[in-house]
Every structure is written in C-alpha cells, then in structure tokens.
Design brief:
Length: 251
C-alpha cells in the first residue's frame, strides 16, 4: 500500500472486509452502501474485462478487484472524480489491473472494442430531472445523482454495444424506477435475470434494488432473490451486511 498525498477535504476510508482503501471527499463525492452492495452482487468473471460505468471515485471497481483477476476499466465523466479514482488505484497498487477513462460513457466505443466486455457494473444517477428536482447541490453531486449527463437509455445502449453476447450488466438503482429499468433493458436486448430488493429495515419499504441482465439472453427466467435487510430494528447492521463490511470474523 503506497503513501498518498491528500488534497484539502480528502480522507481515506477502508472497507474492512477487504484491504482496499478509497480516497473520499465529502464535498465532492463519497461512496455509500449502494456501491458496496453492487460490487458484491454479480458473480465476477475470473478473467476477461469488467467495466464500471459512472464510477465516481472508483469504489465499486476497486472493491470488485479483490475478487477477480479480470482487468477493470473505470469510466467517469467528472475530471475531479477521475483524479481521485486514479489516486485510489495508485494507493492500492492496482495499476496493473485497474485503469480509468475520463470521458462521457457515450464515447466508450472510442476507447474499447465493441462486443468485448464480460461484465458492466453501474451505479448510475437515480433521479430524472423535472420541475420538482432539487438542483441546489454541488455540480459533482448533481451529475452523480440526477440524469443530467447520462440516463438509463444511454447506459443500456452503451452496454449493448460493448458487452459480449451473454455478457452481463449489473446495476443498483431505486425501486420506483423498476419498470422503467426493465423496459429500457429489454429495448436494448438486455434480458433481466436477477433482481434483489434492499430494505433499510424489515419494517420499512425497499429503498434500493440490484438488477442483472444478460445481453441477447432469453426474456424468460427472471429471478427475484430473497430480500436483503440492512439494519436490525435497533439500528445495528444485520449479520449479512455486517459480514459484507467487516468480513466473517469482523467485530
């Protein structure tokens, strides 16, 4: 693990179930549980190529790197986040496995061959932009949270272009976009196969979902997995989430 000089406002956080450390900045971008769960949701290819779209500061791809020897390409539009991403790669000495493309994901075919990617991971902007949107956040959070620079349609179109036949797209999103997600995936011949709803507590409504689709797959066979509960009623993590964050023997 290399020493890394931090800029003003930056800190280093660690997912304790792995050795990966991530450079964060509360004013710019910080990963949360959606990134952690996405990195653990798909079965990762042992080799080949994984692409992390809307990668932010790189948390999803860096967490995934501990479970595969596949090459991982992180794609991030915002230069500041791409720089943090690159610094975290260097901090973890993963330059031989993980790289960053600082560009609009719509231009991905200018960087990678078509039909070449085994798995796409994506933690996209969740919110459509309309007259009720709260657009008073910083530019970094606006682009990360709202469909300003990209949207579901663009993500699925790019996935259809760069994934191999039977390659997979795994995404974390909001339950209120569920039907929109399914419709958009199918429009680009991405067959949804696995869905898991995430609940903050057993007594609350789901506030996240994980979904995986296969390029050119059969439209039959969608599986709704067992729900994943984040917190017990007393606020502690459930055993499943505690293990994800701290490992089987973590305290």
């Amino acid at each position: 693990m290399k020493n890394q000089s931090l800029l003003a406002g930056e800190r280093i956080d660690q997912l304790f179930s792995s050795d990966v450390k991530i450079i964060q900045n509360r004013q710019v971008f910080s990963y949360s549980i959606d990134s952690v769960l996405l990195s653990r949701f798909p079965k990762l290819p042992s080799r080949g190529l994984i692409v992390d779209l809307c990668s932010g500061n790189g948390a999803v791809g860096l967490f995934a790197s501990t479970m595969t020897k596949a090459q991982i390409v992180q794609v991030e539009l915002q230069e500041r986040l791409a720089e943090m991403n690159q610094c975290s790669i260097a901090l973890n000495e993963l330059e031989d496995q993980v790289s960053v493309i600082n560009d609009d994901l719509a231009n991905l075919t200018q960087h990678l061959p078509r039909s070449h990617v085994d798995l796409i991971l994506c933690n996209p902007p969740y919110f459509k932009v309309d007259e009720d949107s709260n657009l008073n956040e910083s530019e970094h959070y606006l682009l990360a949270r709202h469909e300003i620079a990209t949207n579901l349609d663009s993500i699925c179109q790019v996935a259809q272009q760069v994934l191999k036949s039977n390659g997979r797209l795994s995404m974390v999103h909001r339950p209120d976009r569920f039907l929109d997600i399914l419709d958009t995936m199918r429009r680009y011949k991405l067959a949804p196969k696995r869905v898991q709803f995430i609940y903050p507590k057993a007594s609350k409504e789901a506030n996240m979902l994980l979904v995986e689709a296969i390029k050119d797959g059969s439209t039959d066979g969608l599986k709704i997995l067992s729900p994943l509960i984040v917190h017990q009623e007393n606020g502690d993590y459930t055993p499943e989430i505690h293990e994800i964050y701290y490992g089987k023997n973590g305290n």
